[in-house]
UniProtKB/TrEMBL annotation:
EC number: 2.1.1.193
GO biological process entries: rRNA base methylation
PANTHER family: 16S RRNA (URACIL(1498)-N(3))-METHYLTRANSFERASE, RIBOSOMAL RNA SMALL SUBUNIT METHYLTRANSFERASE E
InterPro entries from the UniProt entry: Alpha/beta_knot_MTases (IPR029028), PUA-like_sf (IPR015947), RsmE (IPR006700), RsmE_MTase_dom (IPR046886), tRNA_m1G_MTases_N (IPR029026)
Function: Specifically methylates the N3 position of the uracil ring of uridine 1498 (m3U1498) in 16S rRNA. Acts on the fully assembled 30S ribosomal subunit.
Name of the protein described by the UniProt record: Ribosomal RNA small subunit methyltransferase E
Signal sequence segment: none
Top-rank taxon: Bacteria
Broad enzyme group: transferase
Species whose genome carries this gene: Granulicatella adiacens ATCC 49175
Principal location listed in the UniProt entry: cytoplasm
Molecular-function GO terms, alphabetical: rRNA (uridine-N3-)-methyltransferase activity
């Protein structure tokens, strides 16, 4: 069943539910919904409900029933990623959303090949947020991930001060045979806590940036014995997190 994230709160009266013009267009023209057909909505409180189309002009629905689903990760999860070339960041946002991420933080790093100016950054962030919304609907999430504005290493350190686990996916750790930190950090997580993973761009993370993060309670970890692409590493980490926090529980 098709799912949409809407503004407002689900209640017995549906007047508080607001559909965007784009959503109404998709329901009417693309999905060709007819009166009495049903679909799912998620409101601003992450409440899931089945609604029925009452009228096309003006567009109106009524709530049939609310549903109780548990599909979100039990810990708040953020990924901080270097700016990658082409559509790699689009792909990371889409797949990370499907895997349950709560926040995506683009990071300015010394080895970034791509640079975003202020105007470009705003448009890019808006586009990435739209990708996250579409991926959330497709994967039947209850919460929309937030794509933040671009941060520096310093602002990331300040922003994540209250996080319980902070990890840097570092290829040098993999080369040195490090195998413990990822498992140790994931096993230490408790429900409701926060974790952030930091991933470099195509050229990796500079040693000075790693050192600065380590001075602020970030720990380097390997993601297995192989060197992963910039767009693959976040998915590996999120899959490991899901296995530890959802499958093993």
């Amino acid at each position: 069943m098709q799912r949409y994230f809407v503004k407002g709160i689900v209640s017995e009266t549906t007047h508080s539910l607001e559909f965007s013009k784009e959503q109404i267009h998709q329901l009417k023209k693309v999905m060709r919904m007819k009166v009495e057909e049903q679909f799912e909505v998620v409101d601003e409180n992450s409440t899931l409900a089945i609604v029925e189309l009452v009228c096309l002009e003006p567009f109106e629905v009524r709530v049939i029933k609310t549903l109780n689903q548990k599909v979100e990760l039990p810990v708040f999860t953020a990924i901080a990623v270097g700016l990658s070339k082409g559509d790699k960041l689009d792909w990371i946002v889409q797949k990370a959303t499907e895997l349950g991420v709560n926040e995506i933080i683009p990071i300015e790093m010394s080895r970034n090949v791509v640079k975003w100016n202020k105007d470009k950054a705003s448009k890019k962030t808006e586009r990435l947020q739209k990708i996250a919304e579409e991926a959330s609907e497709q994967s039947h999430r209850l919460k929309l991930p937030f794509v933040s504005e671009v941060m520096t290493i310093d602002s990331l350190i300040e922003y994540t001060k209250t996080y319980h686990q902070k990890l840097i996916a570092y290829e040098e750790a993999a080369k040195e045979g490090e195998r413990v930190q990822l498992v140790k950090s994931l096993q230490a997580l408790k429900e409701g806590e926060k974790i952030v993973f930091v991933f470099g761009p195509e050229g990796g993370i500079d040693e000075k940036e790693v050192a600065k993060l380590q001075m602020n309670e970030f720990h380097t970890c390997s993601l297995g014995p192989r060197i992963l692409r910039a767009e693959t590493a976040p998915l590996y980490a999120l899959s490991a997190l899901s296995y530890q926090c959802e499958i093993l529980q």
